[in-house]
Amino acid sequence: MVIASWIRYITGNLCAPSVIILLMKRLAVIIGLVLLTSCASSPPRDYEPGPEARYVTASWYGKDFHGRPTSSGERYDMHGFTAAHKTMKFGTRLRVTNPDTDKSVDVIVNDRGPFIWGRDLDLSYGAAREIGFVEKGVGEVRIEYLGRDIRYAKRVPFEPTVTSSYLTVQVGSFVEESNAMRLKQGLQFEYSNVFVTTVFLNGKTYHRVRIGEFSSYDSAYVFAQKLADEGYSTLIMAKD
Questions:
Q1: Using alpha carbons only, what angle is made at residue 185 by residues 179 and 199, rounded to the nearest 5 degrees?
Q2: Using CA atoms, how far apart are residues 169 and 222, in angstroms rounded to an integer?
Q3: Which residues of the chain have pLDDT under 70?
Q4: Which part of the chain has CATH 3.30.70.1070?
Q5: What is the pLDDT of residue 163?
Q6: Domain 54-152 = CATH 3.40.630.30
Q7: pLDDT tens digits for 19-50?
Q8: Nearest 5°: phi and psi at 170?
Q9: How far, in Å, CA of 218 to CA of 224, rounded?
Q10: Torsion of CA 204, 205, 208, 214, to 10 degrees
């Protein structure tokens, strides 16, 4: 009844300025309520937004490391679109933009570095070339977080049959000592008690990169799984 009376009032006095103003005010209120209701009923986001875009100091690395194992275990391809970061989980996807050229490239973090103070990101040669960054060598770039390729996350099989007074977590084993030392350096960005042991097996010398000392299998497993989630290959072993 109230709405019908209001409609008759408006249609009978449509030309009156006061009625037009009243109509506009009420229409604005109705629109506002509709928008508020639609916002309130919007479903929550099913993802966690990444960090905002920011500027970092970048460099690039090339042929001296081509074909060598990265900290994630993949072979470094200088022509691919990858990057090294000190702490980001392996598989993290970034959009890197060179502000000097306004060119961008999408890369995947699959390595640790840079190992030079003051630098935040090491691009592969291919990624640096894509954005016109090769000649500059070192400088500021903008990075945007695009998500993560979860295929890089690993799992540790629960095998409590490993028994010893003390356990450790092995992250890599290499014939070339330089590869072991580079992995050790990368791990030391986040972890302490990283060490390398050397063993002689079947006529070859192996350099094993290990972290920590644990008195129980459960504590070693929790730590190993944390590393595996970051993308490292881990193995729980008796500490020599």
A1: 50
A2: 10
A3: 1-51
A4: 167-238
A5: 72
A6: no
A7: 455 445 555 544 444 443 344 333 333 334 45
A8: -95, 135
A9: 10
A10: 90
What the block records as the tokens of 120 is 């935040």
Three-state secondary structure readout of the chain: CHHHHHHHHHHHCCCCHHHHHHHHHHHHHHHHHHHHHHHHCCCCCCCCCCCCCEEEEEEEECCCCCCCECCCCCECCCCCCEEEECCCCCCEEEEEEECCCCEEEEEEEEECCCCCCCCCEEEEHHHHHHCCCCCCCCEEEEEEEEEECHHHCCCCCCCCCCCCCCEEEEEEEECCHHHHHHHHHHHCCCCCCEEEEEEEECCEEEEEEEEEEECCHHHHHHHHHHHHHHCCCCEEEECC
Residue found by looking up tokens 């000392």 in the block: 213
* Per-residue model confidence as pLDDT tens digits over 193-232: 999 999 999 999 999 999 999 999 999 999 999 999 999 9
Give domain 167-238's CATH number out of 3.40.50.620, 3.30.565.10, 3.30.70.1070, 3.20.20.140: 3.30.70.1070
Q: Which two tokens stand for residue 129?
A: 């070339």
